[in-house]
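Quick start: read one record
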Amino acid sequence: MDSSPEEKRLRILVIDDEASQRELLAGHLERLGHRVTTASNGEDGLNALHGDGAEAALVDMRMPRMDGLTFIRKSLETNPDLAIVVMTAYGTVESAVEAMKAGAFDYLLKPVDLDHVGVILNKIDSNQKLLAENRYLKRKLEQVEDFKEIIGTSSAIKKVMADVSRVARSDATVLIRGESGTGKELVARAIHFASQRSAGPFLAVNCTSLPETLLESELFGHERGSFTGATARHLGRFELADRGTIFLDEIGDINPATQVKLLRVLESKTFQRLGGERDIKVDIRILTATNRNLEAKVREGSFREDLFYRLNVIPIVIPPLRERREDILLLIEHFIKKCNQKNNKDIRGITPQAKDLMMRHDWPGNVRELENLIERAIVMATGDVIDIENIDPFVGERNAAPERMEVLNLEELEKKAIVEALGKTGGGLVEASELLGIHRNTLRLKIQKYKIQ
């Protein structure tokens, strides 16, 4: 049975130094429903390929700055699944043979027969489906691994796993809530790989990791010349996640302008690239996460109420580690195995004294803090078990007996906690803010307030 044009849609890169040939091919491909990016030479084509995530490329063999053969070798190094079709003149067929040996998918003789282009694209589409099936099987194996990472037998974590299984069957928007380090992205991955979209891409974006000016470009993409430095078209994460899932972490920190654009994607599954005029429609599922109180941000006017309700269709709350202490020993065992393999060590276990200390710790950084602590202990351990001296002093200080604690006022306690967190993370603001459970901008202000060097 023939596929619909929507099903056959490919992202295609056309590289040819002849403008007339380039425009002829691009126009024909766009009429067939494909997404087309063009370049006039191999170097620009390689840059466009990195930004656009093309699935196929039609490449002239003779071009300035980088010939077709060099393009094939360089592009396949980073994108081995790219289907490259070379275009060559009748008298230089031997170059097409050389290109096929280098990894090209097929070739076209110039002047290009547009009907033959359609035949080759059908072959590419069939090949892409085969590759997708292979990726699907691989991701099914990854799905098993992702569920293995959600460790615990507590009623709280069992509820999370049950929620994951239920929401995976639908395409509804999910808002995952929990403190930093509780495993929000892990839950999002588990939802994706258990869903009907598991053969498609899963793309994660941390909305606080980029400046506001770059976040919109990262999400929605941009056209060439849309701002200073935009030398080529760039596909955003929404476009690259087509037929898959996009996970937006720290969604509570996006600015009002981006909130409006995200609302449009949620309502109509359409958007425009920065500097673009054409509406782009995508088939994606949107999962989001936050450690903020979004209801409070709605009340204060910094987060749109209509967007909140669109995101919060199905909420999943991940409990902090201190509220599921019965899972700590299982997590310790899991991370010892994982970190042994990663660091080529053979730690057999943990002493009762160290275990007791870890059971009494509050774990402000949650599961991430526990994993990092186990890895440091394994790396630093000289024997075959983890003992108290291998555990970060921060854990001991946080759980010290009352008679050994200094009497400090609230500001001194706060300054001490910040100093300890910065020492623990080697001065890393992002890691320290996650450990303390505050935003990094708040941490910067407090560092200035207390004159911490």
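Confidence is low (pLDDT under 50) at residues 1-7, 400-408.
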